[in-house]
């Protein structure tokens, strides 16, 4: 029996895939991939393997594909967009394989919120603004614990990042304001970050819903609420401050 590789292939741009992920895709005998979320140039890296679109399969069929081929000592890749550990549903797959004696190996990838920050040219943690990032989703069919409701998370005034939620943007904005964000708080929505058709919509909690509606964006987008997007003021980092010493640099000419 062989191991099963859960591989993150990045946010969309084929050049953002890791070297390890690329090698595994090229050598794979079987690839079970996440439907339209994986761009064609990445799928074309598969030179000899058979491709299976997971979007057309139910959980049990995916489990069966992974298990039966690993049992035959095939090189099996479960290919996820972004990074498998963020909303990738890998835990249930790994546990199922482990019960049958098959080991899983996770290969990380660049996730969409990082590609979104890069597209915005922004820093998600900024001294004097926030040092905290919260990654979450709006509640829909997948329930969210009460302590993690948007109105509760908003109380931290941190950089708040949403996956799988742009279609619920009105609800998201309403709860963020209820939690304490000002309606003037900057918001960015990045559609298909790093893809050729990437779009960036910037606004505030007061006008972002209309702007996104006008662009007809209802899926495959990251929503970021934070003053770091358009800070009125911020502090310089201490790391390179001439008056700040650390293990690799001492203060020069200290009197």
UniProtKB/TrEMBL annotation:
Keyword set, alphabetical order: Cobalamin biosynthesis, Methyltransferase, S-adenosyl-L-methionine, Transferase
Pfam families on file: TP_methylase
Enzyme Commission code: 2.1.1.133
One of the record's GO molecular function terms: precorrin-4 C11-methyltransferase activity
Stretches assigned to the Tetrapyrrole methylase domain: 4-208
Matching InterPro entries: 4pyrrol_Mease, 4pyrrol_Methylase_sf, 4pyrrole_Mease_sub1, 4pyrrole_Mease_sub2, Cbl_synth_CobM/CibF, Siro_Cobalamin_biosynth
GO BP: cobalamin biosynthetic process; methylation
Tree of life domain: Archaea
UniProt family annotation: Belongs to the precorrin methyltransferase family.
Protein name: Precorrin-4 C(11)-methyltransferase
Gene that this polypeptide is encoded by: cobM
């Amino acid at each position: 029996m062989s191991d099963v590789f859960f591989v993150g292939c990045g946010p969309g741009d084929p050049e953002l895939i890791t070297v390890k992920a690329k090698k595994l895709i090229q050598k794979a005998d079987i690839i079970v991939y996440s439907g339209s979320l994986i761009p064609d140039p990445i799928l074309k890296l598969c030179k000899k393997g058979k491709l299976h679109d997971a979007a057309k399969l139910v959980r049990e069929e995916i489990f069966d594909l992974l298990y039966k081929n690993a049992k035959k000592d095939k090189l099996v890749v479960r290919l996820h967009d972004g990074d498998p550990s963020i909303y990738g549903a890998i835990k249930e797959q790994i546990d199922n394989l482990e019960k049958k004696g098959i080991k899983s190996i996770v290969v990380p990838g660049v996730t969409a919120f990082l590609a979104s920050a890069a597209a915005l040219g922004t820093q998600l943690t900024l001294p004097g603004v926030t040092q905290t990032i919260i990654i979450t989703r709006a509640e829909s069919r997948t329930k969210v614990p009460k302590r993690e409701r948007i109105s509760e998370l908003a109380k931290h005034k941190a950089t708040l990042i949403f996956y799988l939620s742009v279609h619920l943007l009105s609800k998201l904005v309403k709860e963020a304001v209820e939690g304490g964000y000002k309606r003037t708080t900057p918001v960015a929505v990045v559609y298909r970050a790093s893809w050729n058709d990437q779009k960036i919509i910037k606004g505030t909690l007061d006008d972002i819903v209309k702007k996104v509606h006008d662009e007809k964006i209802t899926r495959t987008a990251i929503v970021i609420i934070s003053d770091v997007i358009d800070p009125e003021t911020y502090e310089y980092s201490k790391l390179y401050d001439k008056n700040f010493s650390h293990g690799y640099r001492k203060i020069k000419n200290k009197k």
